[in-house]
Structure formats: structure tokens, C-alpha cells
TrEMBL record:
N6-(pyridoxal phosphate)lysine sites (modified residues): K198
Source species of the chain: Adhaeretor mobilis
GO MF annotations in UniProt: pyridoxal phosphate binding; transaminase activity
Entry's EC annotation: 2.6.1.90
Residues annotated as catalytic: K198
Region described as Disordered: spans on this chain: 1-26
The protein's name: dTDP-3-amino-3,6-dideoxy-alpha-D-galactopyranose transaminase
One record GO biological process: polysaccharide biosynthetic process
Entry keyword annotation includes Transferase: yes
Annotated InterPro entries: DegT/StrS_aminotransferase, PyrdxlP-dep_Trfase, PyrdxlP-dep_Trfase_major, PyrdxlP-dep_Trfase_small
Coiled coil: none
Keywords: Aminotransferase, Pyridoxal phosphate, Transferase
Gene name, Swiss-Prot/TrEMBL: fdtB_1
Entry similarity comment: Belongs to the DegT/DnrJ/EryC1 family.
Amino acid sequence: MATDLKKPVKKMELPSDQDSTGRDMGDDEMLLLGEAIASGTLTSTKGKFVKQLEEQFAQYLGVDHSHAVNSGTGALHTAVAAIDPEPGDEIITTSITDMGALTPIIYQSAIPVFADVCPSTYNVTPESIEAVISEKTKAIMVTHLFGNPCRMNEIMEIARARSIPVIEDCAQSFGATIDGRYVGTFGDIGCFSLQQGKHITTGEGGLVTSSDEALARRMYLFINKAWGYGDAKPDHYFLALNYRMNELTGAVAVAQLAKLAEFVSRRTEIAAAMTAGLSDLPGIHTPAIAEGMKHTFWKYCLRVESDKLKGGLDELAKRLKERGIFCGPRYIQKPAFECEVIRDQRTFGDSRFPFNLARPEAVDYSRDKFPGTYEALASVLVLPLNEKYESQHVDYVVQNIREVAHKLAK
Ligand SMILES: *Cc1c(COP(=O)(O)O)cnc(C)c1O
């Protein structure tokens, strides 16, 4: 009897985006990488692969300019540097995002001001952005979280009415569209990451995009220590870093980019199968996608009403982990503003710069200002997926969630 009750659940190994089980790379990448090495030219200032990547990515997205960088964080830093805030200026951003979207704001001496998120899409909204706009707002930076687009048409209306530039963080939303138009092309600058776990990857890497000539030029310079390559009298024009991608990375990126459309359609198919299998569970909601939007599923999120399950979200997540389904009960443990760097203003020495210049309201992170954020974090179950998931993997995940949800149902 006792052994029956303890019967171990048969686990299936799910493909992981941290290694070759869940990443589609091989001969195509090797071929171009070999060519880069054989050429002996590994710097993008002289080589061909990074240039090719930039041209092809701009063409794919339908923008005038794209520049490659060495991380997604570098892409966002480059974008903020191009906007060139004055110390103490504010950049509106989101409480649920990667820290790589936030520290660049602080490095460029601006204050990240957090807009609340919608508890069912986890994205900032036109309303939550408008609520925190001030006379100090220098830019708006949105994250299309998990691959689900923000409401860009309305957000752009608000921004354009006040001439505020918009940066779109598309690190998780390659291929996502609104009425057929790619995210990253609504705002003034798009930023992408090629980190290990993203839709396409080179381990580390990133891209910035823009159709604004002046912003694109400034981004190019920022990536290149602001050295005016090719100018009549080049100089280091302003404070900037070396964020260049190298040719080895560029070669792999070119091969990965060629597969992006296929990866995106794989992910949307997998997500559709998950939704079909999970849409009738009490207290569990499949992803909310607004009319006209194409979600490209960096992750697949369920919204769980904890009070409808015994032990709530945490118990559900624990039981799924026991079955080899490594879901985060929360994508991030806490809102970004509760991280020490921001909460305790640990920046440059003991100066607290630039937070020492902030309006008190801009750095007031009282819980009651962020109801959507706390509700989102308390209810989101983040499930991984990648281009190597086959139907047996999807079935395994769906069957186990169904079983556990029924066992825990009140
Ligand atoms: C991954 C990610 C970043 C940072 O990109 P890195 O390449 O890891 O530096 C920024 N924003 C979001 C939303 C991300 O998912």
C-alpha cells in the first residue's frame, strides 16, 4: 500500500534551451564560423559577418538601420545613450523585466520610473504609462514580456503627443506583431538580445534597430567608443564604450537568423497546442492575447487563481517540478524596484547618483502603487518551451498539468 502511494512519477526529459537538447544549431553555424576563423578577421570593423547580420536583420524587420552589440543589455544601454538624458531625467519602464533593461538607464544618469503592469498580460499599459509621465520624462522603454506585444498604437499616441521617444525592448519578442507589423518598429528604437535562452542565440549578443537617422548614427558611435570612423576629421566625440559584436558571434548569428521564422512558427504551434490542452481547467487561465496581436512565446505563462487550488500556485509549481517540469512560480521573484541596486540605490560609490537627483514620487515604490505588479507575480506560472519541443513533450506537459490541477482542485 505504502509503496503504491509513493510510486515515483515517471519523468520525461524536456528539451532545455541551455544546451543542444533545446537549441537548433549545428552544420549551418559551423560552416559560417569556420569561414570566419579561416578569414583571420575577427573584428567587425573589418569583417563581413556582423555587417551581413546587421543588413539582414534590418531587412527582416523592415527598418533602415540595425547595429549589432555584444549583449541585450548593451543594446538597451546603446538605446538610452542615444536618447542622451540629462542627469536626473526620468525614463518610464516596467516593474517586471530583466535587470539588463534597467541598469543602462541608471548608468546613463537617468531615473527608472516604474509603470504598473496589467495582471493578465504582465505588460505596461497606455494607462499605467500615462499615470507616471512627468515634466522630467525623457523616454519610455517598454518590454514586450514573454513575447506578447504591448499596446503600441495607444502607447505611441501618448508618446507622440508629448514628443517623448520610445524604446522597445524586444529581447523576448522576436517575430511578434501587431496587425502584422513587427514589434520594434513602432517606437524610435528596437532592442534585441541573442542570449542563450532567447528565440535565436549566440550565447551572448544583441541588436539595436531604428529608422531614425540621427538616433542610428548616435547608436553606431556609442558602440564604437564614439570614434567617427570614415569621417574627414574623426575624433572620440562623446562618452561611449566598445560594445561591438565580434565576427565569431556574427557568423553564428547569421546562421541563427536564417532560422528565426521557423523557430517563431514552432513556438506559436507549441503554444497553440498547450492552450488547446489547458483551456478548460478551473482556476487556470491560458495566455491573454489581444485582438490583432501575435504572441511569439519566449515562455508560456498560465495565470493561476491560487484560491481555487489547494496549496495555491506554489503547490502547483512544486508538484510540476517533481514531474520534471521546471516552471518558475514567478518569472522574477519580486518587482525590479525591490532589487537591492534600486531599492538601496547602490550605484556610484556612496553617492546614490543619479537617485540623489530624483523627485520623491519617482522613487516611491509603495506597494499600493503597483497592484497589477503584485497580482501578476502572485499568479503567474512560467513554463519553458523551445523550438525542439515535439508533440510528446507538449503532451507530457499538458497531461501533467491537467493531472495536478485536478488533484489540487478545491
Ligand atoms: C534577456 C533580456 C535582456 C538582457 O539581455 P542580455 O543579452 O541578457 O544582456 C533585457 N531585457 C529583457 C526583457 C530580456 O529578456
